[in-house]
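Final report, closing paragraph on structural work. Over the funding period we assembled a curated collection of sequence-structure pairs, and we close with a single example.
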Amino acid sequence: MMIIAVLALDGVLPFDLSVPGQVFGTANATVTAPHYDIRVCAPDRSVTTSAEHGAFQVGTEWGLEGLDGADTVIVPGHAGFLDRPSPPVAAALDGAAGRGARMASVCIGAFTLAAVGLLDGKRATTHWQHAEELARRHPRVDVDGDVLFIDEDDVVTSAGVAAGLDLCLHLVRRDLGAQAAAATARRTVMPLQRDGGQAQFVEHRRPRARDSTLQPTLHWMETELHRPLTLEDIAAHAGMSVRHLNRRFREQTGTTPLQWLLRARMHRAQELLEATALPVERVADRSGFGTAATLRHHFARLAGTSPQAYRNTFRGPAGPSGPQGPPPPV
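Its predicted structure, as stored:
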């Protein structure tokens, strides 16, 4: 049998901790004989989950010795993910990797693998909110914050929370084939492969503090998204030269005026797709993209999916205004 060792560190995120057991345990039921032996391993054979998510204690049969002989070691996220792992934990992870175990992380568990050097020279991902910090702390890691998971042969990392399901289903597919993975996905009520990456979940950066010199212009841009704004239009509203405007934008938003405008239009389009039943052509017009083709192009590039697939995923039930939803901003 293949041994799956799930490393539970203090403050472990409960959902992250439970996902591997749920998926690999379900996979065992899809084949003629169980394939996986799942171990939850805690340094002291007991761990308290994160207080933020309702702390409770978990007792385990395995300490760090449970990583010995493991075929796959999975590190869930935990509350102290920015802290360097203790020497015993680091040694256990390094030893498992050295023996050829497949190493994996769920969400911010990537920080623990990176701290031990197991992501150096590799492409990896984590929750989009923490991707920049992972790259800053570990410059030898090629961080991609747009994808749901990354498989680098013996090292597999996933994005936040539910992406741990995607990662584990992917490993089942690698180990047992597409048929077993599809059966596991059906039993866990999950799509075998989700459309797009985590870029579609990233929050739009709203205008910053009120004392920002660009605040009035940023607010104006958001009210005029449907118009074909140029750099000159934006500079004129801000009372600056184009060169000065570009410099101010870099200082106060971290990006260029046109890139900020593009992201704002994407956010408006997402809001319209979520809250209304407007045709994609109308969404494109109201959000300033002009045509449905242009909207689809930017959606594919920035969100990794199509407008219709995004709507199918994120649109809730129709509100009190009927099937058209609440009136869109103009």
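The chain has two domains: 2-199, 215-314. Residues 133 and 254 are 15 Å apart (CA to CA). We thank the funder for supporting this effort.
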